[in-house]
Structure formats: C-alpha cells, structure tokens
Input
Amino acid sequence: MTGVRAGTGVRRARLPVVLVVPAVVGLAFLLLPLVGLLVRAPWGTLPQRLFSAEVGDALLLSLVCASLATVVCVVLGVPLAWVLARSDLPGRGVLRALVTVPLVLPPVVGGVALLLVLGRRGLVGQYLDAWFGISLPFTTAGVVLAEAFVAMPFLVISVEGALRAADPRFEEAAATLGASRWLAFRRVTLPSVLPGLVAGTVLCWSRALGEFGATITFAGNYPGETTTMPLAVYLALESDPDAAIVLSVVLLLVSVGVLAGLRDRWIRGAA
Amino acid sequence: MKKVLAVLALVVAGCGTPEAANRGGASGDITVFAAASLTESFTKLGKDFEAAHPGAKVTFNFAGSSALAQQLNQGAPAELFASAAPANMRQVTDTGTVKAEPTTFAKNTLQIVVPKGNPGGVTGLADFAKADLKIALCAEQVPCGAAAKKVFEAAGVTARPDTLEQDVKATLAKVALGEVDAALVYRTDVKAAGDKVEGKDFPEAAEAVNAYVIAPLANARNKVGAQAFLDHVVSEAGRAVLVEAGFTAP
Output
C-alpha cells in the first residue's frame, strides 16, 4: 500500500512493502512483550507492592551496583579502548576480538569463569582469601564485578569506534606544541570522543542494570547484599507472578527513562 | 523386516526379566514430563522400559515441576506427569488436565552437603548458624528452600546463609566448586554429584519429606503406553532404580 502511494507521489517517501512489512513485524515483536507486561501489571496493588522494603532494597542495590560497575568500566575501559584504537600493538585484532567475547558469551558462563578465577578456590581468589581474607563471591563487590565483566565491552566498543573516527592529527598537533601525551589525551582526545563515551557509558550502565546470569552465578542471591532487581524478578516468578510483573515494570521504566533521557542529547550526536 | 524385528524383540525381551516382557502391547511414543530431580533415574527407567517393550519410545521433558505444570495446563502434549511435589500436581488436577488419582512413587529428603574433605568442619544443622562459615540455601520460593525452612524451624536453628540460590542444582554447584562450606540439598542430588561432595544425614530431615507423584494426563494419546510406564515406575524393578538414585520408597 505504502509503496504504491509513494510511487505516485513524493519520491523520497518511497518505502517498499518488502521492507515495511518485516519492519512492522519486527517492531511489534520487540514492543508487544513490553506492552503485555504493562497490560498484565496489577495496577491496583502496584503502589503498595512498589513501596515494600524488598523492592526498595533491590532497586537501590541495582542502581548503586550498576553505577559502580559503570565507574569501573570507564576507568578501565577507556584506556583499553585507547590502546585498541591508537597503539600499534602486535595482535591488536585478536585483542579486540577477545574484548568483545563477554558480549556474546552466555552471562552464566561469565559467572562460572569469574567463580573459577576470583572464587574462594579460584586461580586468583585463593590468594586474595589466604593473604588478605578477601572473598568476593556472595558480596556486593561481587555483583559490581559481575556486572562490569558483562558490561565493559559495550563501553570499549563505543569509545574505540569514536576514537577511530576522531582525527589523530589533532593529538599530534598538540604534541608538537609541547603537550604531554597525557595532557593531549585529556584536553584533545577525550573531548573529541565525548559523545561516544557518553553513549557507551549509558549502554554500559543499562546492561549492568539488567545483568542476571553472571550476577546470580558469581555473587549469589541475598536480600540487601546481592539481590538486584533481575534476581528478585526471577525468584518472585516462582511464588508470586504479580510481584514479578511489578518488579519488571519498575526495571523497564527505569531503563527506558534513562535511555530516552540521554538519547536525544548524546547518543544521536554520536551516530 | 518386521519378522526380523520381532525376533530381535524376543531376544531382547528374553535377555530382560521374563515378567517384564511386553504385556498389554504397550508401544508407540510415550512422552513423560518429569521433575528435574528425576533426570538420572527416569532416564534409566525409560531405557529399561524400552528394552522390555519393543516398539515403545519414551521421551522426557525434564524441568522444574512448577514450569512443567504450567506447560501442561497450556496444552503441551504428554502422556504422564511426574511431579516433585503434590502441590505442583494439584496445579494440573485443578484444571482437569489430570483427572486420575496421582500415585506416590518415591520420597526424597534433605541432606547436608559439604565440599570433599569438609573444609568448614560442618557436623550438623547447628553449624548453619555460624557467621564465619559460607552457607548456601535454596530460596524459600523453590521447593528445596521451603523444605530447608521447615527443617530449620524443627531444629530451632536460625540459619545465616550467604546466598539463596534459585534451584537445587545451583545450590549444589556452589558446594561442588568449594565456594561455600555447606548447603542443604536433596539426598538424590548429593548422590548424583559423585565424589566432589560429601553428604551428611541429620535427624530433622524427617520433618520435610518430599513426595513424588505421577499421574496420566486426561487427554493422553497413548493411554496404554502411559499406564504401562506408570506400572514400570512403581514396579519392584522401578523402585530399585529409584532407591539406587537415593530416593526412599513411598
């Protein structure tokens, strides 16, 4: 229909049916489950469920952990992205592929891997435990690590893409004018990739907020310490589906709110 | 070809126990929805059954009993439902998906499970209250967690878990990896985990006995096959397999 009409009218608006139909189906496929969630939500009892202590604890913990994980990702991920984009390290392609592995790895596998390295009997964890008495599994710090592990590639990829798009000659110019490498990075490179950095940070934060598999596998589940919203949703589903729906709606609204709020300002600029 | 198969069938039947030979002509596909904790034992029962009933093919769908009950109520085609708890069976009898009276065929109790060598020095339920030990329990929302709650109440122990896991296998995994010093899981799970872990009995386990029930579905397509496999599960030979896996007789 659209194709026919467009064909007789404005050329620019020509949208072939072959593309429009699957696009609409795709949109429906992505949005309908969210609509279903909103339709089934027990709106009548929503406020009292929302302000129960467990929901508050889980939401607060989720927000704090996702934010801390994002800080970890920015502090470690930006330099990593810089190395991948600007250095002439041998095997950089392999390194870049490895960095993206957590993106495609099932998060549960990530959790198992973290346990095997940082657990009480893990490669590194056994020394942390023996020397410093630090045990990361089943702690809030463990949640932050699990989320950072899964979310960091989102940041690295965004920032690396921005760095590659930015012209390195400005940095070189700064260097010839006497700026140190570090000064040039801070005053020239970083501002030029800021939209990419913000976009990556938002993506990273959203991914950390929704993290489930690695968190429950590595950090376990204990209310107030490691029970984040996605874990609370999963367990609520076993006994009280309505509570699970309420928690899901909250998580959905928080995610959409943050993504929508930042999208216009930053992400479009990066594209 | 059919003759060859028939002869082969006789040979196979002859190798098994004579009374297990193909009675009642059970054949065709038999789909069994069974609780995840029955994975090892029912797989074995299915193989034995197929050996004794040439032409029968038993297919399993193993998952949490609650998830299975929901699938069946949504119309998933099956001949039998074996649930880890009567409560999950009631979810399908309430809707008429199952009309027959369920048969209790096995029981399961909790056991204390510790990593091999028992590094935490756990001896009994009272150790679960120690703050310096790492403890994993199932979340109360899942059956093994509900059972754990019962035994702690019976023992008057306030457990101090470090994590509440989403199912019994996840709880066991934390012990097998040595990340926790102790957990409470089903005796059958301890047995299935082999020598990576050690199981310890405790008297209060009797307070939370888990009954496994099985029943044919009202709209089963292979009713004869369903009854034959049910009979096999509750037979002497079937019970032996279940006891071997760590279940107790009903």
Summary: Strands of chain B lie at 28-35, 56-63, 80-83, 103-108, 110-115, 135-138, 163-165, 182-186, 197-200, 210-216. The longest strand of chain B covers residues 28-35.
